[in-house]
Design goal:
This protein has 328 residues and is of the alpha/beta class. The chain contains 10 helices and 14 strands. Strands 9-10-11-8-7-6-5-4-3-12-13-14 form a 12-stranded mixed beta sheet. The chain has a two-stranded antiparallel sheet with strand order 1-2. The structure holds S-adenosylmethionine and iron/sulfur cluster. The site of S-adenosylmethionine (SAM) has 23 residues, from strand 5 and strand 7.
């Protein structure tokens, strides 16, 4: 098992397999002028399989595949197949925008992958276009229905954008009335690829809950699963549930069990840090499995207590990267 210097168990890695995306959600990426990672700098599949294999032997039992848009990367399904048979990896989850996924559902199920988080910030097609700068709303809705028909465990991630989609909060909660979905509302974070454009007017987890309670005052707090970043609720007679992720307020750091790997192999032990070591560079310099493990353990020995400390430590490099390079 892996532990950090604050006694927290680390058993979960988020793997951003690409920084490319077919959407351009404005809270995540600028419309143009994106500095994509050169292809030669991306981790190869072989390198990623090795890292997942080595780290899973040490205690990383759950992986989330994210990006950019994971299904935009060529041969993604072969990579998933390879990691799906690693003996120490218990769970593979995926976060996707749902535009390129519908024809892969059966194959994913055959690999034992049945948990998908779909990003969807509105139920209005025009608003979807404004937010993502692409007209793909119907594709995502069709994908959602197909995943539910195939009995996948589905969560929807909605980034709450002040003055833009707060009207969608109630309709989005109501998606869970007749469908077994967990709808999660995420506070907007300043990772939009444009330095200096923070989110001072962001909607906090408190405002989001107040809005939902104004319509559904009897929403009941659920007992959150261990390590959950969302604070979860149930409304009477609803099949699904809703949750709120205080990603900007950072209320959940005390039980954080996760690390992240960027498409170029940078390991982050906190979403808000600037990266602590690079596994790609170690692998390309000939590191053994033991050396990779030692580098991880050493980084976990210096882990920031919370996202505020991690952000403070990177003061000379203010948060400005795109979330597509971090994976959410
Ligand atoms: N492309 C996939 C998708 O959209 O689901 C996976 C990558 S995306 C970067 C992962 C998650 O990060 C999505 O749920 C997205 O909504 C969230 N995200 C991106 N930028 C964000 C921001 N500035 N604040 C909060 N969440 C953000
Ligand atoms: Fe692409 Fe996901 Fe970022 Fe939207 S949030 S631009 S879908 S990576």
């Amino acid at each position: 098992m892996l532990y950090d210097n604050h006694g927290r168990e680390i058993n979960y890695m988020r793997l951003a397999v690409t920084d490319r995306c077919n959407l351009r959600c404005h809270y995540c990426m600028p419309e143009e002028g994106i500095n994509y990672v050169p292809r030669a700098s991306l981790m190869t599949y072989e390198e990623m399989v090795r890292i997942v294999s080595v780290f899973s032997k040490e205690g990383i039992s759950k992986i989330r595949i994210t990006g950019g848009e994971p299904f935009l990367r060529k041969d993604m399904m072969s990579f998933l197949k390879e990691i799906s048979i690693l003996p120490d990896l218990k769970k593979i989850h995926i976060t996707s925008n749902g535009t390129l996924l519908i024809d892969k559902i059966d194959d994913l199920r055959r690999m034992g992958i049945t948990s998908i988080n779909l990003s969807l910030d509105t139920l209005d097609r025009e608003r979807f276009f404004k937010i993502t700068r692409r007209d793909d709303f119907q594709k995502v809705m069709d994908c959602l229905d197909a995943l539910l028909d195939a009995k996948f465990e589905v969560k929807i991630n909605m980034v709450v954008l002040s003055q833009e989609n707060t009207d969608d909060i109630i309709p989005m909660v109501e998606l869970a009335k007749n469908k077994n979905i967990a709808v999660r509302f995420i506070e907007e974070m300043p990772f939009n690829g444009t330095e200096g454009k923070g989110n001072d007017a962001y909607w906090s987890h408190i405002q989001i809950l107040e809005k939902i309670k104004s319509k559904y005052p009897s929403a009941q707090k659920l007992i959150d699963p261990k390590y959950s970043t969302s604070s979860n609720y149930k409304i009477d007679n609803f099949k699904g549930s809703f949750g709120i992720i205080a990603a900007y307020s950072r209320t959940f750091c005390g039980s954080c069990n996760r690390i992240r790997m960027t498409p170029q192999g940078l390991i982050k032990t906190c979403l808000y840090d600037n990266g602590v070591f690079n596994v790609r560079d170690l692998i390309r310099a000939g590191a053994t499995d033991e050396q990779l493990t030692a580098a991880l353990k050493s980084a976990l020995g210096h882990r920031a207590k919370d996202g505020f400390e991690a952000e403070h430590k990177r003061f000379q490099f203010p948060v400005s990267e795109s979330m597509a390079t971090i994976g959410g």
